[in-house]
């Protein structure tokens, strides 16, 4: 699900200024987009940098950051415990069924 997308042609200087602005926002923990949107950034972020050459004279650089919603990460241990309990129940049921079939 896309939250926001912007595409435009800018000067190299404007691009550098925009990247500095995004970097400053990342330091604060909140990135702003569009007219009034913002998104919280986790303390730990997965980063990808991809540089490609498309044909003889065209190049591209893709920078991608991804992270788990900090609020979702807080509730994850509870969800993991529930998943582990469910998995243990399933394993016990499978063992019981196997034992019954073998007898």
What do these coordinates show?
- The protein has 103 residues and is of the alpha+beta class.
- It has a domain at 69-103.
- The chain has two helices and four strands; from the N terminus they run αββββα.
- Strands 1-2 form a two-stranded antiparallel sheet.
- The protein starts with 11 loop residues before the first helix and ends with a helix.
Notable traits:
alpha+beta, two-stranded antiparallel sheet, Amphi-Trp_dom, 2 helices, two-stranded antiparallel ribbon
**Topology pattern, helix = H, strand = E:** HEEEEH
State the end-to-end CA separation.
51 Å
Low-pLDDT runs of 5+ residues are none
Beta-strand portion reads: 25-35%
Please tell me how large the radius of gyration is. Answer: 23 Å
Strand order of the largest sheet: 1-2
Pfam families: Amphi-Trp (PF20068)
Region (Disordered): 70-103
InterPro entries: Amphi-Trp_dom
Biased composition (Acidic residues): 80-96
